[in-house]
Amino acid sequence: MLELKAQKRDILGKKVKSLRKKGFLPAVLYGEKVASLSVTVPFRDFEKVYLKTGESTLIKLDVEGTPHTVLIFRIAQDPLRGVPIHADFYAVRMDKEIRTKVPVKIVGESLAVKNEGGILLTVLRELEIEALPQNLPHEIKVDISGLLTLESRIQVKDIVFPAGVKVLFDPNDAVVIVETPRTEEELVALEQASEAAPAEVKTEQEAKAEAKAETKTETEVEAKTEVSKDGVAKKEGGKKSSSR
């Protein structure tokens, strides 16, 4: 089990920028029977561990001499640079199943792709599973060597999961598909359709909104009172009321 050393921190809010400048990643530790605790970990150490474990492998978090078995539960990233700016460590109970998402790793070679020019489409890049912490796999391997023909696919039910792992997807959901390659004419037609769609096609919500707006306008016009030149007011239904 990989290990990370952490320090308690009392620098919170916007002031954590100073920690990042010094090479530390602000984080928080929490979980069942573990009081929430703000901590920091060396950024480079965290990056090395995260690359190997992802969010589905247990690690040991040593907070000033107190060990915790945790998952890297959630990562916040800088939207521009794509680097971690905050992390959550979730302390797990080894006797209680947890739910998490595990990445799909494609292995092998498909003859439908190699020999027939098929296009390999990965529909699900991660799968949600449930297992005891010690049974959590780092990744789910999907062997595509059995995809021999165009339009063949691998569904969730075709994957052999490790012992103790329950997948929380529909068994008939496609994970990987070999699509038939499109002709140049089909690609041109698709491109033209996509360019024309925004100008010609309205969503159901847009159509309803426009219809509602038109109805409202018509109602407002009908409700208005028209005043004639001789001072006689004409109301709905053509009735007249004299002005006295």
SSE-based structural type: alpha+beta
**How many angstroms does the end-to-end distance come to?**
94 Å
* H/I helix tally: 5
State Rg.
Answer: 30 Å
Q: How many domains comprise the coordinates?
A: 2
The rough form would be described as globular
Describe the sheet with the most strands: 6 strands, mixed, barrel
Strand order of the largest sheet: 1-3-2-6-5-4
| Quaternary structure annotation | single chain
Instruction: Please give the CATH architecture of the largest domain.
Output: Beta Barrel
Number of DSSP E strands: 16
Mean pLDDT: 82
Question: What fraction, in percent, of the residue positions are helical?
Answer: 10-25%
CATH T-level topology of the largest domain:
Ribosomal Protein L25, Chain P
Features:
244 residues, alpha+beta, Ribosomal Protein L25, Chain P, RNA Polymerase Alpha Subunit, Chain A, domain 2, 2 domains, six-stranded mixed beta barrel, four-stranded mixed β-sheet, 36% strand
Q: Could you write a compact summary of the structure shown?
A:
Helices cover 24% and strands 36% of the residues. The protein has 244 residues and is of the alpha+beta class. The protein folds into 2 domains: 90 residues, Ribosomal Protein L25, Chain P; 86 residues, Ribosomal protein L25, C-terminal domain (RNA Polymerase Alpha Subunit, Chain A, domain 2), CATH 2.170.120.20.
